Amino acid sequence: MVVIWGANYSVIKRAFLEIPPQPFNAIRMALAACVFLITIRLAQRRARATRGRMSPIFYTPFPLTRRDRIDLFWLGLVGHWMYQLFFVGGVARTSVSNGALIIGATPVAIATVSALLGREAIGILHWIGAAVSITGIYFVVGRGASFGGATLGGDLLVMISVACWTTYTLGAAHLIKRHSPLYVTGMTMAIGAVPYALLALPQIIATNWAAVSAWTWTALVLSALLALCLSYLIWYIAVQRIGPAPTSLYSNLVPIVAIAVAAVWLEEPLTPVKLTGAGLVLAGVFLSRLGRKMTAPEPGPEQSGG
């Protein structure tokens, strides 16, 4: 997931030269939603053929309750439509450094809300690790970042996107206890893709699609299949297995992969300061994982994933 999301920054940066951000995002969300819905249908057929002998990642036999349907609906709106809308709009109006720094606060936001809601017991090493990681992100992308002024509107939009992602991650945690990560991710993606595409429709119509190169079409398809379908599925498998706060901390590794890919592909320079920051991010993730191993209880039958 980290490798895919990190590489995706360079991919879409190139693609945006030919397709505006919102139409690009609307098309890839629609494609990802279609792939999810087809895969969910195939998983259901396979489950019937094998009498339910499938991995809970792809299928669970529990029926949808009224609350489940309501939760899927609002999570689709918040976690896909609103998140993507505010994220893409914010990044377009602020600097890369500002955006990356704000997004780097996502693990802290998720851990804080999770602790306040009593969902997870967050140990001291997790908080230390989160602080070390955010410091590392500052060294990687934040030196020279300036908040306010011309970038204030974009900064606020990215902050709202972080709140949307935090809500989405924690809000779906109870759903994936009964339903598969494939189903929860796919249905919420499909729900969120509809209003997103409708809002982006005027820009989609105005885009000169005939002038889009084969490379950019390939980048759009791969971004949909890998950055949305596969990576979102991995995200919720991890939330199901290790919890929201530990999962979110790994997102701090995304800027490290992003600068490494950009250095090779886009020939952006790697400086000693950036390498130092990368080391701090890795150290922070290690500290947080170490703290979880020291405090985690022995898994019972319901925690083992079997």
Structural features, described:
Mean pLDDT is 81; it is low at 294-306. This protein has helices spanning 2-15, 21-49, 66-93, 96-103, 106-116, 124-142, 152-171, 181-206, 214-242, 244-249, 254-265, 272-295. The protein is built from twelve helices and no strands. It starts with a helix and ends in an 11-residue tail after the last helix. The radius of gyration is 20 Å and the shape is globular. The protein has one domain (2-295). Helix 3 (66-93) packs across helix 8 and helix 4 (96-103) packs antiparallel against helix 6. By secondary structure, it is mostly helical. Helix content is 74%, strand content 0%.
Descriptive terms for the model:
mainly alpha; 12 helices; about 0% strand
Number of domains: 1
Distance between the termini: 23 Å
Number of helical segments with 4 or more residues: 12
Mean pLDDT, rounded to whole units?
Answer: 81
SSE order and pairing:
Elements: H1 2-15, H2 21-49, H3 66-93, H4 96-103, H5 106-116, H6 124-142, H7 152-171, H8 181-206, H9 214-242, H10 244-249, H11 254-265, H12 272-295
Helix pairs in contact: 1-9, 1-11, 2-8, 2-9, 3-7, 3-8, 4-6, 4-7, 5-7, 6-12, 8-9
